Amino acid sequence: MATINFGGVLEDVVTREEFPMEKAREVLKNETIAIIGYGVQGPGQALNLKDNGFNVIVGQRKNSKTWDKAVADGWVPGQTLFEIEEAAQKGTILQFLLSDAGQIALWPTLKQYLTPGKALYFSHGFGITYKEQTGIIPPADVDVILVAPKGSGTSLRRLFLAGQGLNSSFAVFQDATGRARERVIALGIGVGSGYLFETDFKKEVYSDLTGERGTLMGAIQGIFAAQYETLRKNGHSPSEAFNETVEELTQSLMPLVAENGMDWMYANCSTTAQRGALDWWKKFKEATQPVFEELYASVAAGKEAERSIASNSQADYREKLNEELKELRESEMWQAGSAVRKLRPNN
Ligand SMILES: NC(=O)c1ccc[n+]([C@@H]2O[C@H](COP(=O)([O-])OP(=O)(O)OC[C@H]3O[C@@H](n4cnc5c(N)ncnc54)[C@H](O)[C@@H]3O)[C@@H](O)[C@H]2O)c1
Ligand SMILES: CC(C)(O)[C@@H](O)C(=O)O
Ligand SMILES: [Mg+2]
Ligand SMILES: [Mg+2]
């Protein structure tokens, strides 16, 4: 473990330098890693592990779109692609990468294949933390571990192909074999993590649900919509409103934040912009802080889990989600965005 100073707080992290890929391959050389579920994380993790030289198989329902996707990605039926039950039986490490609601439905089947010494792997603390709601209670004689990439499975794969990596958290919930820790770190390196930081299942799910409902996805759309509407109500064109709300942020300013922090981005804007941003950010913080407190309380009370399970367990959950995504896509702001993207010189 390398001890790193994160803003004055010392934390131990695992880097690829101290836990190289050869070591990960050595730790997992006798394992068959079965990827159960081929949605977003499934493909990213499965393909990265395979390309890094691990023994990987995929478990999917035959005659499903995801089975066809797995075939298109190079998984071979009968060799590296199997029905879920067969993959679960063959695997020594079962990576449970169905949707969090889907995991509840499959659990009674999957647990039959968790024979002593196997490892049950999650990419979210959801199933274990909210066990009263999910019913996921693993047997005592298997390792229960977690690697949660901090980003989309799509980005995990893209960054791997670009020779980079996405940071992940890792956790051990249950160490039945005495090997849980080395197994989970090796898997974290194998799936293409940049570095790994330690957490526990509860902290992972509380922070993850807060982040995606907050600044990463929910809050950002909310604040975009509020500013766009204000500009439009005051007579600004869609083009002007979209550029001042989204396009400049994603194309010009966020890359500077990613490169060297917020003060660096501010420093590369005018003194006029700096004065205004420095005055206004605290007002936005004060206005939104109560919403974040409400959000965290809802996560901690299990209400977000309840809502997610209830809506994503419906037979027509995918159609309903698609309708809501369509509504976003067809809103004036994102239609303006589509036109703006087409005008980018590289398009
Ligand atoms: N999406 C991400 O990039 C991401 C990032 C970090 C962690 N995670 C976690 O990884 C795990 C997998 O997430 P994902 O986004 O790849 O999953 P997903 O929602 O894309 O679903 C994965 C698979 O589950 C199947 N599925 C969905 N609902 C089902 C149901 N009700 N019954 C049976 N099957 C169902 C889908 O057909 C798909 O093949 C989850 O625990 C998630 O929280 C996801
Ligand atoms: C990619 C995210 C938002 O980080 C993940 O947490 C998810 O649930 O998809
Ligand atoms: Mg999440
Ligand atoms: Mg996340």
TrEMBL record:
NCBIfam families: ilvC. GO terms for molecular function: isomerase activity; ketol-acid reductoisomerase activity; metal ion binding. InterPro entries: 6-PGluconate_DH-like_C_sf (IPR008927), 6PGD_dom2 (IPR013328), KARI (IPR013023), KARI_C (IPR000506), KARI_N (IPR013116), NAD(P)-bd_dom_sf (IPR036291). One of its GO terms (biological process) is L-valine biosynthetic process. Residues 200-347 form the KARI C-terminal knotted domain. Mg(2+) 1 binds at D208, E212. Mg(2+) 2 binds at D208, E244, E248. The keyword Magnesium applies. This is Ketol-acid reductoisomerase. Pathway: Amino-acid biosynthesis; L-isoleucine biosynthesis; L-isoleucine from 2-oxobutanoate: step 2/4; Amino-acid biosynthesis; L-valine biosynthesis; L-valine from pyruvate: step 2/4. Substrate binds at S270. Its cofactor is Mg(2+). It holds the Pfam family KARI_N. Keywords: Amino-acid biosynthesis, Branched-chain amino acid biosynthesis, Isomerase, Magnesium, Metal-binding, Oxidoreductase. Its EC number is 1.1.1.86. Belongs to the ketol-acid reductoisomerase family. SUPFAM superfamilies: 6-phosphogluconate dehydrogenase C-terminal domain-like (SSF48179), NAD(P)-binding Rossmann-fold domains (SSF51735). The keyword Iron does not apply. Residues 10-199 form the KARI N-terminal Rossmann domain.
